[in-house]
Inverse folding.
């Protein structure tokens, strides 16, 4: 494989030909032009100039070599044109002239080489006119001279012959060359669009993959929020129930009732999440649960589980987006769950403050005193999920120990 001279891409033919059939065509044209030039040169030297046989044979050889220049018409299109201009005054080389002019116009780009194309074409037109005019005005025997048309008609005839030999091949070559370049341009554009579509498809696939990953993360976060807090409360109540069932049946009954209520709430939320997952649009997973108005109920559930928890609200209440209120609810929920896990017996304060640019939520516990922390499983992803939620809304999130070990 090789590159074509005109930058036409990979080729499979020999030398400068893009295809083997192009090489075969040029060889055929070269043979035809060579034969025509050889006979024309021989006839000119032998018949008109009345030269000997050796001179006529040499002229025929030169004529054949002139026709062979068509083999390089795709590589050097000006070469056969110049050779044709040398032989046209001898009244032969018509095939060479027509083919070379067509190739010149079709191969050279009009925008960059218009002057050369126009100059060579104009010179070919002038020589063809001179050749035709010489042929029609050549002396003829006296009897036949009286039957010739007027001179001006002969001049017009010579002009028509010259135009017929030069203008059609040049115009056809310009058209074919422009069409060929247009096709190449459209192919390049199509390849570019195809590459761009492939890139867009890859980007769309990557966006879809990221969306699925984000949605899985979101669903996992919602599942964690629902299960961790509810199940933690149930475990705490189960531990308390075990201790008081023999001593205080009434309190044990209340704890069992609360466990049932918490369990039903967990099942309801899980059922909603699973129901939304079966829908075509999973973007609203668990958006309906949790809000600032439900914080007292959340705090009361922890208080019923034996936690000394208080809720303090300050500032003027304003309506906020559901996603923002749900995030605040989940933050408090996670804080209370962690207090149950790691700060058993400690007092917990839930603070909600409405400020001009939003609201602030804090869950702070004292240093644990007396009671042992409840042994609850932990995946270590609760705080990470809270931080992601808050940062997604443009807020700030901090978590860590207090100076007094709270």
């Amino acid at each position: 494989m090789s590159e074509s001279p005109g930058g036409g891409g990979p080729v499979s033919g020999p030398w400068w030909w893009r295809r083997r059939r192009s090489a075969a065509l040029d060889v055929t044209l070269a043979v035809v032009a060579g034969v025509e030039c050889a006979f024309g040169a021989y006839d000119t030297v032998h018949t008109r100039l009345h030269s000997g046989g050796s001179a006529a044979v040499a002229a025929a050889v030169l004529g054949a070599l002139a026709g062979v220049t068509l083999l390089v018409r795709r590589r050097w299109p000006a070469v056969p044109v110049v050779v044709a201009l040398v032989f046209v005054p001898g009244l032969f080389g018509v095939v060479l002239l027509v083919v070379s002019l067509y190739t010149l116009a079709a191969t050279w780009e009009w925008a960059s080489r218009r002057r050369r194309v126009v100059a060579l074409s104009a010179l070919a037109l002038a020589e063809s006119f001179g050749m035709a005019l010489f042929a029609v005005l050549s002396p003829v025997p006296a009897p036949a001279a009286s039957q010739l048309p007027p001179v001006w008609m002969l001049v017009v005839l010579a002009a028509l012959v010259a135009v017929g030999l030069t203008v059609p091949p040049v115009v056809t070559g310009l058209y074919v060359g422009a069409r060929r370049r247009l096709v190449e341009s459209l192919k390049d554009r199509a390849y570019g669009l195809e590459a761009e579509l492939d890139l867009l498809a890859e980007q769309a696939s990557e966006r879809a993959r990221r969306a699925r990953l984000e949605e899985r993360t979101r669903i996992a976060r919602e599942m964690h929020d629902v299960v961790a807090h509810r199940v933690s409360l149930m475990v705490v109540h189960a531990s308390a129930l075990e201790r008081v069932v023999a001593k205080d049946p009434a309190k044990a009954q209340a704890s069992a009732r609360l466990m049932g209520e918490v369990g039903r709430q967990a099942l309801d939320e899980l059922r909603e999440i699973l129901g939304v997952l079966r829908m075509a649009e999973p973007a609203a997973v668990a958006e309906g649960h949790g809000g600032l108005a439900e914080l007292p109920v959340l705090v009361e559930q922890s208080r019923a589980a034996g936690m000394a928890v208080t809720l303090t609200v300050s500032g003027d209440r304003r309506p906020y987006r559901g996603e923002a209120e749900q995030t605040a609810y989940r933050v408090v929920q996670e804080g209370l769950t962690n207090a149950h896990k790691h700060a058993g017996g400690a007092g917990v304060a839930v603070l909600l403050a409405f400020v001009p640019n939003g609201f602030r939520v804090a869950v702070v516990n004292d240093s644990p005193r007396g009671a042992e922390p409840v042994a609850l499983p932990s995946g270590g992803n609760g705080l990470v999920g809270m931080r992601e939620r808050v940062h997604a809304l443009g807020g700030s999130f901090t978590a860590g120990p207090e100076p007094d070990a709270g």
